[in-house]
Amino acid sequence: MRAVPSSVPDADAFRVALHDALSAAAPTAGLRFDSGAIPADAEGTHSLAHVDAIPSGDELVVDDAVAAQLHEIVTERERRAELARAGVAVSRTVLFWGPPGVGKTLAARWIAQRLELPLVTLDLAAVVSSYLGSSGRNIRSVLQFAKSGPCVLLLDEFDAVAKRRDDDTDIGELKRIVNVILVELDRWPETSLLVAATNHPQLLDEAVDRRFDRIIEFALPGGAERRTLLANLKCRDVSAEVVDVAATIWEGHSHAVILRFWDLCRRRAILNNRTMEDVVVTELVTQFPTSDARNQVWQVAHDRLGMSNRSIATLAGVSHPTVASGIRQATEAL
User: Fold this and answer.
1) Strand pairing partners for 121?
2) Options 1.10.418.60, 3.40.50.300, 3.40.50.2300, 1.10.490.160; CATH of 11-217
3) What is the pTM for the complete model shown?
4) Could you give the C-alpha distances from 144 to 24, 136, 141, 149, in angstroms and in order?
5) CB contact at 8 A, 35 and 23
6) How many CB atoms sit inside 10 A of residue 206's CB?
7) Among 158-172, 213-227, 241-255, which is the least confidently predicted range?
8) In the chain, where the domains are located
9) Residues with Cβ within 8 Å of residue 65, at least 6 apart in sequence
10) From CA 150, how far away is CA 118, in angstroms rounded?
């Protein structure tokens, strides 16, 4: 089941209850979800991995090139038998790299959802132990757990455990961790998909990236992706014009930054009893006084919200003649 029934009043509570039910179920021949099966640190106090039995990545928005590769990874496993007959293996290991907040983690969730597999995520804080030699054993135990049944294993912030081995400050622990990873990447089975994600590919050991079957670069969202991202938020009281202006002005920013801005506007709209459109436009005026698209924002604030040139100027921290000139230029450009 991929969608919460419409008759359920609290979707989040339903998901939690369903997840708990799966966790309490009797272990099967596949990957086990009960807490006793998930590897823990030497003291047994912290789990080394998180298991999401019903991952969801419906919110994923990426460019066409990345989307095509993600769909291809899914299709490979759906048509594994055909590939096997031709002597071709499916992709076993994938490396995602790109700036923070561009959808790398969500893409792993999307793949797991489409393949109807659980998502196992390495808990980096718990794995990298202060005890000498423990980190390598911790990572190996998580990898062995992920091999116990079909799943998608996500190694987020991969550069933290697969850094270059030429670090003079390392006392040997880093080299042991990288050696463990190299061996596991070579031996990784087709039954599970290993996905590693990093914001800093230049920090990876040179021998590591050569082990991946695929390397996919995630870029900052373009204009089309930003519009899709904002349109998916389905704010009924925000016009298409304001969404378009917001998408334009957020050029060069990540998905996460845009969504954080939108969530901030939602909270302020509720707390101050204002419309979402009013808050979005006001925040755009305030936060982007020097943007290339500022004239469009000023025009929207003036025409749709009825804001005076002086009030816009106060928010933007510029003179009101500057605002008047900007609005005039935006109008002439239409």
Assistant:
1) 50, 154
2) 3.40.50.300
3) 0.83
4) 22, 12, 5, 10
5) yes
6) 9
7) 158-172
8) 11-217, 223-333
9) none
10) 8
What pLDDT does 2 receive? 52
Tokens of 200: 């800093």
Q: Which stretches of the chain are assigned E, i.e. beta strand?
A: 49-52, 93-97, 119-122, 152-155, 193-198, 214-217
| Tokens encoding 276 | 């979402």
Residue in this structure with the two tokens 């998502």, named with its chain if needed = 119
Please state, rounded to an integer, the average pLDDT across all residues of the chain: 86
User: Residue 329 has which token pair?
Assistant: 């230029």
- AA identity, residue 132: L
User: Residue 195 — φ and ψ, nearest 5°?
Assistant: -120, 120
pLDDT band of residue 137 (cuts 50, 70, 90) is confident
Q: Identify the pLDDT of residue 235.
A: 73
**Number of CB atoms found within 10 A of residue 70's CB:** 23
Contacts of 19 (CB under 8 A, 6+ apart): 52, 53, 54
Give the position of tokens 């980190």.
135
Tell whether the model's pLDDT for residue 8 goes beyond 90: no
